[in-house]
UniProtKB/TrEMBL annotation:
<dbReference type="InterPro" id="IPR000182">
    <property type="entry name" value="GNAT_dom"/>
</dbReference>
<dbReference type="Pfam" id="PF00583">
    <property type="entry name" value="Acetyltransf_1"/>
</dbReference>
<dbReference type="GO" id="GO:0043758">
    <property type="term" value="F:acetate-CoA ligase (ADP-forming) activity"/>
</dbReference>
<dbReference type="Pfam" id="PF13380">
    <property type="entry name" value="CoA_binding_2"/>
</dbReference>
<dbReference type="InterPro" id="IPR036291">
    <property type="entry name" value="NAD(P)-bd_dom_sf"/>
</dbReference>
<dbReference type="GO" id="GO:0016747">
    <property type="term" value="F:acyltransferase activity, transferring groups other than amino-acyl groups"/>
</dbReference>
<comment type="similarity">
    <text>In the N-terminal section; belongs to the acetate CoA ligase alpha subunit family.</text>
</comment>
<feature type="domain" description="N-acetyltransferase">
    <location>
        <begin position="738"/>
        <end position="891"/>
    </location>
</feature>
<dbReference type="Pfam" id="PF13549">
    <property type="entry name" value="ATP-grasp_5"/>
</dbReference>
<dbReference type="InterPro" id="IPR043938">
    <property type="entry name" value="Ligase_CoA_dom"/>
</dbReference>
<dbReference type="Pfam" id="PF13607">
    <property type="entry name" value="Succ_CoA_lig"/>
</dbReference>
<dbReference type="InterPro" id="IPR013815">
    <property type="entry name" value="ATP_grasp_subdomain_1"/>
</dbReference>
<dbReference type="InterPro" id="IPR016181">
    <property type="entry name" value="Acyl_CoA_acyltransferase"/>
</dbReference>
<keyword id="KW-0436">Ligase</keyword>
<dbReference type="Pfam" id="PF19045">
    <property type="entry name" value="Ligase_CoA_2"/>
</dbReference>
<dbReference type="InterPro" id="IPR032875">
    <property type="entry name" value="Succ_CoA_lig_flav_dom"/>
</dbReference>
<dbReference type="GO" id="GO:0005524">
    <property type="term" value="F:ATP binding"/>
</dbReference>
Length: 891
């Protein structure tokens, strides 16, 4: 992150292309840089000038008196490669290319960009841009943009924008509304530094409380996902992305392919990362201002305190539109307020305390609303009526709101008369809006963010799913299909995939002629289904290639002749192998679809929803990203309209076996994780009846390009799956058998039991204090990890039929990707039996495998056992503080 930091707070900066030409980008940027020259050296570079804006100008970067921390480039595109070469030779490691004229203009520009990337890689240079607006950091007085405006005030919001023009407009909009920033970056084409890099930087910046993003293209989706997942729990990330309703441009071969467009991929990514997606600029900053993770609502129940009925009605309408709830004010609260409020107050919610309400009336009502157990948050509305001073009422609200554990939002309606009151709210970080509808919308954003995190990190239950199915059997099928030059698997081949992963399916049998078909049907027992067998036909029912409910051999022979006639007429060039017959599952409760489509950037996405022949018309589907667990599978299901029916039943339909559906989705997810060869797959319909979920039809299309050029395990996924390769049996020195394996979200109960069972001494040796508050949020942080960024190996012990976690070795990789910090924890009854040494040994191996150069930890001086262990492993042990040692191992 050191190189990224220089984009926002360099000690010295050079501007290549500095000029005093009126209206030029080079002049505007230099003017902005000069405003901060008391805090850093500013070097204009231009071979055709001796000075610019009274600043000494240098011919080239090689002529500067020092190596600049940061170089800004505004010269024409064709000269940029030489500037990057010069920057590399003098030793600069961070460059912002403002210049345009690269891949956005065609092949010539793309070639220039590739040349720049090659030079940058050679010298280890990080680049923002090209074709960008630059960066700002109000706290460090740094403005490296061509924005014609004053520097925004210092604040806690980081703003990242792909569009320079929109970034400038939004900055102007925000400044007018007193919004402060911890940093701003316009990143343009993202040839190098992307959203993932900047989310990582601002995620660790102590001055940044939330991150807002204007995103057109995601860039490296895996890096974005990893960074967003790492910080969205503690720092809200709010994104506005245009193209929500953009239709997919490429025709798809399967039902799933035609139903999943780019917008659904992006929504799935945001949901899985815990990112909030908004629709407009106003919402972007409203969210950034109010999503204080320490004061989020626990529910959707909102109380409205007002001195006017009309605004309260508008607020209520907005609440209903946003699917919030008007909180029920308890009888106890009404009874308590009756003696202190006018007799004609509303005695319910909205809590209308009348137009002449003074500060005291607002105070008692707000305090009562906050105390009411049925209220999750409060919006306070003021309209300029009566004699009450809006600033005096605001001061009262501030005192109460700052003590409240429930969010309080305000709407002081009006302009000049309430300006000072709004300013007071801003100063005390109390959300304030011009109109009550905006305040309500802001509250619902808070609730959705809180609820989204709660749903995302709910502790999953373990499912009965085979984690190691027969993959080689399936690879044999793939090899055969590829050798025949096919991309579409037959129904039989597709169902073998599913069955290998434990998904039940009807078995089709091939018949070449009518007589064979009749004999097979008779053996299967009637009724049966007949389908055309052709590698060239994907949607069989569209060409008359499906006939249901055949009950006799005569019906089968007649159906064979009819099907051949209809299919050959519809697809005369198709290669027809015959027909398949399978048992008819004619009684089931629900018809569902499960499918997937692989995107070249985002990888595979899982689709679930209402199935059958009308699936594409209904489009009642939701999407999720593999890998799934029980909770994530349930979240996907909850995104559909049919979920309520599956959950509750409807008329003659009983509630569905949701656990069975969760298991089926997880098995399907595992299939996608293990086989990047799959381009598209769908099961439609999946028939659900009681404790059975049966795939009646299945279709798989393989990725021809991947078959030719495989990229290795799991490179097709943007979320690294469970690293099963680290599962190892082991036994302690005293002979107890344990399983060493990576931790999972499902391990939260075992992790909690381990931490609660520690002695005070063991707790202090590991955490440097006695760990008392072992809550869900802490356990989520320990168990729900990104395997790209960290690793936790637990020791699972079967103690008389009960599983226990008896030790954890943890490695957290630093943002530089080159070093990592480790920690070891062993249950008291397993200490002194070499488990700690084994965990340390595994972590060192994992660190080497991940390419780390440095492996370190911090150990209390009194933890003699760990210090001796580190010495045995060859660590350099050095006293860091009076009570701590830093142990370091060069890998």
């Amino acid at each position: 992150m050191d190189k990224i930091k220089l984009f926002f707070n360099p000690k010295s900066v050079a501007l290549v292309g500095a000029t005093d030409k009126e209206g030029s980008t080079g002049k505007i940027i230099l003017q902005n840089l000069i405003k901060g020259k008391d805090r850093r050296a500013v070097y204009p570079v231009n071979p055709n000038r001796e000075s610019v804006l009274e600043q000494k100008c240098y011919p080239t970067l090689k002529d500067l008196p020092e190596v600049p921390d940061l170089v800004l480039v505004v010269v024409p595109a064709k000269f940029v490669p030489q500037v990057i070469e010069d920057a590399g030779k003098v030793g600069t490691k961070s460059v912002i290319i403002i210049s345009a004229g690269f891949k956005e203009v065609g092949s010539e520009g793309k070639a220039l960009e590739e040349k720049i990337a090659e030079i940058a890689k050679q010298y280890g240079i990080r680049i923002i841009g090209p074709n960008c607006m630059g960066t700002m950091s109000p706290a460090s007085g740094f403005n490296a943009t061509f924005a014609r405006m004053e520097m925004p005030k210092t604040g806690n919001v980081a703003f990242l924008s792909q569009s320079g023009a929109l970034g400038s407009a939004v900055l102007d909009w925000a400044i007018a509304r007193n919004v402060g920033f911890s940093g701003f970056a316009s990143i343009g084409s993202m040839m190098d530094v992307n959203f993932g890099d900047l989310i990582d930087y601002f995620g660790t910046d102590e001055n940044t409380k939330s991150i807002i993003v204007y995103l057109e293209t995601m860039g490296e989706a895996k890096k974005f996902m990893s960074a967003a997942r790492g910080f969205a729990r503690t720092k809200p990330i709010i994104v506005i992305k245009p193209g929500r309703f953009e239709e997919s441009a490429q025709a798809a071969k399967s039902h799933t392919g035609s139903m999943v467009g780019n917008a659904m991929f992006v929504d799935a990514i945001f949901q899985r990362a815990g990112v909030v997606r908004v629709d407009n600029i106003g919402d972007l900053f409203s969210c950034a201002a109010i999503l204080n993770t320490s004061n989020l609502p626990r529910g959707a129940n909102l109380a409205i305190v007002t001195n006017a009925g009309g605004p309260a009605v508008l607020a209520t309408d907005s609440l209903m539109e946003q699917k919030g709830k008007l909180a029920h004010i308890s009888d106890e609260t009404v009874t308590a307020l009756n003696p202190v409020l006018p007799p004609s107050w509303s005695k319910g919610n909205p809590m209308d305390i009348l137009g002449d309400a003074d500060p005291e009336r607002y105070a008692v009502t707000l305090e009562a609303a906050i105390k009411d157990p049925g209220v999750d948050g409060v919006v306070v509305i003021y309209t300029p009526q009566g004699a009450a001073n809006p600033l005096d009422i605001a001061k009262t609200i501030v005192k109460i709101a700052k003590k409240s554990k429930k969010p309080v939002l305000t709407s002081w309606m009006g302009d000049a008369n309430v300006a000072e009151a709004r300013k007071l709210f801003y100063q005390h970080n109390i959300p304030s809006f011009e109109f009550p509808e905006e305040a309500v919308k802001g509250y619902i954003f808070m609730y959705r963010y809180a609820r989204g995190l709660e749903n995302l990190y709910e502790t999953p239950e373990e499912l009965a799913v085979d984690v190691d199915p027969s993959k080689e059997y399936i690879r044999t099928i793939l090899k055969k299909v590829a050798s025949e030059g096919r991309t579409l698997l037959s129904e039989t081949e597709s169902k073998k995939f599913l069955q290998a992963y434990g998904i039940d399916a009807t078995v089709p049998f091939l018949a070449r002629d009518a007589k064979d078909a009749a004999q097979i049907a008779s053996a299967l027992r009637f009724p049966v289904v007949m389908k055309i067998a052709s590698p060239d036909i994907s949607h069989k029912s569209d060409v008359g290639g499906v006939i249901l409910g055949l009950k006799t051999e005569a019906e089968v022979e007649k159906a064979f002749a009819t099907m051949m006639e209809n299919v050959k007429a519809a697809c005369p060039a198709a290669n027809i192998e015959g027909v398949t017959l399978q048992r008819m599952v004619d009684k089931y409760d629900y018809e569902l679809i499960i499918g997937s489509k692989k995107d070249p950037v985002f990888g595979p996405v899982i689709l679930f929803g209402s199935g059958g022949i009308e699936a594409e018309f209904q489009k009642d589907v939701a999407v999720g990203l593999p890998p799934l667990n029980q909770v994530l599978a349930r979240r996907v299901m909850e995104g559909t309209k049919i979920y309520e029916m599956l959950y509750k039943g409807f008329r003659t339909k009983p509630p569905a076996n949701l656990r069975l559906l969760e298991e089926t989705l997880v098995k399907f997810s595992n299939l996608l994780v293990d086989f990047p060869e799959i381009m598209e797959i769908d099961i439609n319909p999946l028939a659900l009846l009681g404790s059975e979920a049966i795939a009646l039809d299945a279709r798989i299309i393989i990725d021809e390009e991947y078959i030719k050029n495989p990229t290795g395990d799991h490179n097709h996924l943007i979320i690294t799956p469970y690293p099963a390769k680290y599962i190892k049996p082991w036994h302690t020195k005293d002979g107890r058998d344990v399983i060493l394996r990576p931790i999972r979200p499902e391990d939260e109960p075992m992790e909690k039991a381990l931490l609660e069972g520690l002695s005070e001494e063991s707790s202090r040796m590991r955490f440097f204090h006695i760990l008392k508050d072992i809550n869900h949020a802490l356990l989520v942080r320990f168990c729900n990890i990104d395997y790209d960024r960290e690793m936790a190996i637990i020791a699972e012990y079967n103690d008389k039929g009960k599983k226990r976690n008896v030790g954890v070795g943890r490695l957290i990789i630093d943002n530089n990707g080159l070093s990592g910090e480790f920690s070891i924890l062993v249950a008291d009854d397993f200490q002194h039996h070499e488990l700690g040494a084994k965990l340390l040994d595994m972590l060192i191996g994992i660190a080497r495998e991940k390419g780390l150069k440095n492996f370190y930890g911090v150990v209390l001086a009194e933890n003699v056992v760990m210090l001796n262990l580190c010495k045995d492993f060859g660590f350099n042990v050095k006293k860091d503080k009076s009570t701590e040692y830093k142990v370091n191992l060069e890998l």
